[in-house]
Amino acid sequence: MSTIIPIGPFHPVLEEPEYIQLYVDGETVEKAEIDLGRIHRGMELLAQEKTFDQDVFLVERICGICSASHSWAASLAMEDIVGVGPTDRARYLRTIVHELERLHSHMLWVGLAGHILGYWTVFMWGWKYREPVLDALEMITGNRQNYAWYKAGGVRRDVADDIWPEVVKIIDEFDKNNDILIGAFLDDPVIHGRLKGVGVLTKEEAIHYGCLGPTARGSGVDIDVRRDHDYGAYSEVDWNVITQPEGDCMAVSVVRLLEMKEACKIIKQCIAKLPGGPIATEIREFPRGEGIGHIEAPRGESFHFIRSNGTNMPERHKMRAPTFLNIPSFRPRVKGETISDAVLIFAIIDPCYSCTERMAVLDPTGQSLMTGKDLIKLSHEKTEKLKREY
Amino acid sequence: MASTLGLVLNFLIFPGLLFTAIVGLLTQWVDRKVSARVQWRVGPPWYQPFADILKLLGKEILIPEGAGRTGFLFAPLAGLAAVGVVSTMLWLANIQGGGFVGDLIGVLYLLTIPSLGMIIGAAASGNPLASVGASREMKLVLAYELPFIIAIFTAVTKVSPMTLRLDGILDYQAVNGVLLGNASCIIAFIVAILCAQAKLTYPPFDVPEADTELMDGTHMEYSGAALAVVKLSQAMMLFTLPIFFITIFWGGIVLTGWGILYTIIKYVIIVTIIVLIKNTNPRVRIDQAVRFFWGPVTVLAIIGMVLAMVGL
């Protein structure tokens, strides 16, 4: 006999409203059903009603943690339409801010993992280590989050050269603290007991579900947009793609921890090599055309598609956050695990539900084809269909 | 008649419920403050635990639909009363030398009542998460009781002539030096501290309450004064268990001259060990907890027992 344990829509471990039903027999999870759709914000429709320049600010607000990723992906898509690239200095500045974002995003996840494991000390320490990274971001861009830093063609503001020694100091300090954390993670027998062999996602499953980012790399899938689709300054600095073959929670955690070390390396090299010159290519008009931009956000590949009809607003702006593809990997991971591990398994992909949820159906003239009621009906039908499938 | 009244007063005021509650809450403040400093936080002011309890006392008690009313409300009270009795017995044995044959067994028995109370209360609440918490608590009790009892009886074995009276153990220590001076009792003490961690449901053994998994599990449906009783009995356990260990292993409580300072130092050391273990470990899974207590901890406890029997 299976009991249903509800997780959410409000639960201490989840920052966002989503609803997960665990079908459990005793403590063993037989099945998990994930019910999203509580935080739809109409981002895509909004993006079609704003100018290209305003759009970058809008997509920044898709996610508070990966605001640099989305705005960079959107900028790349716009540059793709126009057919110009950013200046050299802009490429390096963009890369530095993006990697700083990866640092703070991964460190935030380490803290949350500690919180989920009931390890409050790691939670507090992780977030304390994260704080200087935000200071560095504030020094460079002027903001701790939502940097307002990327734009089509380059970046918005130049940076005075005298702040870089301070940033390098922060990164060195962070790297040292990260080493302590890596040591604590790899040596602590209790953490090993909680993470090792838990929630295994095999390489085949990861490919089948189309997982992205650290989730895929933790299962031994060697993908990374930074290396595979060259953008920014990544091809000009020395760094490695971290993969782990095991596919369990430990492997994903190790991937994140080691990726932070790589990010530190990238930032320091970029600062050392930072070229001078203008910070942006001027873009006056967006011609008719289509463009895509995809970058490696901390959680995986962020994908933006923009179609321009020659006006100053995009005709279609499609955005896909990595969580969208990572969510279904819960299913194979959670089966046969205990309730204690279920919450950890949900958190291992570093989910960002709010970033994922969007939908609007329009015809090319901008007329709404479906009302809110139609959308709800459609959504119910789709949910029913999915439920029948599983 | 007068002695009966005295006993009732002992139970209700000093050294029973009221005194234990006050010192327990102060200890809880120390716990919260030390934890906060370890985690680079500031921590609450000293009166915070009292304020929490006071606030809860003034709140409405909600009883979930479908809950067994009596069991739900009386189970925590039974736990509170049991801790009060244990505290009274320990202090009377320490200060007045009052005891009776086999009171050690009584103490061991009463120390499990708060856990059993939580199991009954959580099961009566009718909440699925609370019932999972209750089943975990049950497994945890089964896991830690065996090594805990072996550890305590190591001390009993060491005392000659063997006695099950608390004051007997104290008298032996007063003459022959504290039991912690022996290798066997050091092992038993370590085992007892580990079991105390589980008795207090502190990390790494906070599985029944696991806030990120079960949203406070066994405590989930409690509110208002009922929750205050639950929290209060936890705070009192935090006071009673170290006192119990001091009594059994570490020469007991002395309330004259330098003895007061010595007693406080002993108490603070035990509390600090508990708080440090709490702050340097993530939560284990329930199966890992059971395997840990029935495996290495029980083996350790048995080694201690064997050492005590060969006279070490």
Q: Mean pLDDT score of chain A, rounded?
A: 84
Q: Radius of gyration of chain A over alpha carbons?
A: 21 Å
Please estimate the helix content of chain B.
over 70%
CATH fold call of chain A: Cytochrome-c3 Hydrogenase, chain B
Task: Assign an overall shape of chain B.
Answer: globular
Q: Your description of this structure?
A:
The complex is a heterodimer of chains A (390) and B (312). Chain A has 390 residues and is α+β, with helices and mostly antiparallel strands. Chain A has one domain: Orthogonal Bundle (Cytochrome-c3 Hydrogenase, chain B). Chain A has 16 helices and eight strands. A three-stranded antiparallel beta sheet of chain A has the order 1-2-3. In chain A, strands 6-7-8 form a three-stranded antiparallel beta sheet. Chain A has a two-stranded antiparallel ribbon with strand order 4-5. In chain A, strand 2 and strand 3 form a beta hairpin. The longest helix of chain A is centred in the first third of the chain and has 29 residues. The relative contact order of chain A is 0.18. The model of chain A has no long low-confidence stretch (mean pLDDT 84). By secondary structure, chain B is mostly helical. Chain B has one domain.
